[in-house]
Design goal:
By secondary structure, the chain is of the alpha/beta class. It folds into 3 domains: 52 residues, lambda repressor-like DNA-binding domains (434 Repressor (Amino-terminal Domain)); 128 residues, Response regulator (Rossmann fold, 3-Layer(aba) Sandwich); 138 residues, 3-Layer(aba) Sandwich (Rossmann fold), CATH 3.40.50. Helix content is 45%, strand content 14%. The protein has 13 helices and 12 strands. A 6-stranded parallel sheet has the order 2-1-3-4-5-11, with helices on both faces. Helix 9 links the parallel strand 6 and strand 7. Helix 1 crosses helix 2 and helix 10 crosses helix 11. The radius of gyration is 25 Å and the shape is elongated. This is LacI family transcriptional regulator. InterPro entries: HTH_LacI, LacI/GalR-like_sensor, Lambda_DNA-bd_dom_sf, Peripla_BP_I. It comes from Paenibacillus pabuli.
Length: 339
């Protein structure tokens, strides 16, 4: 016997007719597409509520071959720069209606390789990758063969065809070293970072350019690479202090490196900002509150995250063609470590 009390399932077409819009427009609203005018969005949402429509995401994904999942792989969320970047990227991606799958590599090339494979297996629509300092050759091949949109962020990978969002590291290093040179420093060390990474190379280019423009003599012995951590900064500082003639100023690869450097200098009775000037890079939240407050280069990680998300979204929906690059301009923030 037929149940006359059973309700017919409300469809998206019903919602569209009720709201006076096309089915395509109604579909874009339920997928939270930002291009829909607010008045139209509200009209559709009111119809959804009034009719009791329930969006079947699984069925929609099967029809469109889209998962609305995007992957974001970063190096280490304990690093304040990375966590700020992630906040910007995730918030913007969620605004676009995506669900974010997060992976962290701990700056390990093998973990990075495995995470990329896992993300692809989950049928993500696109990937934002903050590469580890060193990447495997097979990772480069895999990324070039990806069938989904890819955006690299914060660190470039050579021989990779992908959109990129980051800061002008060369200009940032140039600003930092120029500031120290104008204060009269002749010997300025460069501590921290992995030499094989693009972020170190670009900073080194800015460091060299500032030396050339201010007629300073570059000394390879006071350019000391290390892991991009505060512990790495401590190790680099100890090596520097064992040199025959320590410099009067230090440019650090990052704020984390600077914190490690200042910790060692303080233990040795060296007063930062008086006996030796120190400049960091990133301007993470801790930089202003450190003792003494750190002079550093603002690299706007949250803004980079937002730009990376925008680039990825544009690629996913087919709005952009060719390779896009979004390079933000750095700013020098002068505080007590180099007044």
């Amino acid at each position: 016997m037929k149940n006359t009390n059973s309700k017919k399932r409300v469809t998206l077409k019903d919602v569209a007719e009720h709201a006076g819009v096309s089915t395509t427009t109604a579909s874009l609203v339920v997928r939270n597409n930002p291009r829909i005018p607010q008045a139209t969005r509200e009209r559709v949402l009111n119809s959804i509520e009034e009719l009791g429509y329930i969006y079947d995401r699984v069925a929609a994904n099967m029809r469109s071959q889209s998962s609305n999942l995007v992957g974001v792989i970063v190096t280490n969320i304990a690093n304040k720069f990375i966590s700020e970047f992630l906040i910007g990227a995730q918030n913007k991606l969620e605004e676009f209606g995506y669900t974010v799958l997060l992976g962290t590599t701990s700056d390990n090339a093998t973990k990075q390789q495995n995470l990329i494979s896992t993300m692809v297996e989950h049928r993500i629509d696109g990937l934002i990758l903050n590469p580890s300092s060193i990447s495997l050759e097979k990772t480069v091949k895999q990324l070039n063969n990806l069938k989904i949109p890819l955006v690299l962020a914060n660190r470039e990978l050579y021989n990779i065809s992908a959109d990129y969002a980051g800061i002008d590291y060369e200009e940032g290093a140039y600003l930092a070293v120029t500031h120290l040179a104008k204060k009269g420093h002749q010997r300025i060390a460069f501590l921290g970072g992995v030499k094989e990474s693009s972020t170190w190379t670009k900073r080194m280019d800015g460091y060299r350019k500032a030396f050339k423009d201010h007629n300073l003599e570059l000394e390879e012995s006071i350019i000391i690479a290390s892991d991009p951590t505060s512990e790495g900064g401590e190790e680099a500082a100890r090596v520097l202090l064992n040199s025959p003639k320590p410099p009067s100023a230090i440019f650090c690869f990052s704020d984390l490196i600077a914190f490690g450097v200042m910790k060692v200098l303080t233990k040795e009775g060296i007063v930062v900002g008086r006996d030796v000037d120190v400049v960091g890079f990133d301007n993470i939240p801790d930089a202003e509150n450190y003792h003494p407050p750190l002079t550093t280069v603002s690299s706007f990680p949250r803004s980079i995250g937002i730009q990376a998300a925008k680039l990825l979204h544009s690629k996913i929906i087919g709005e952009s063609e060719g390779l896009q690059r979004m390079i933000l301009k750095p700013e020098l923030v002068i505080r007590d470590t180099s007044k």
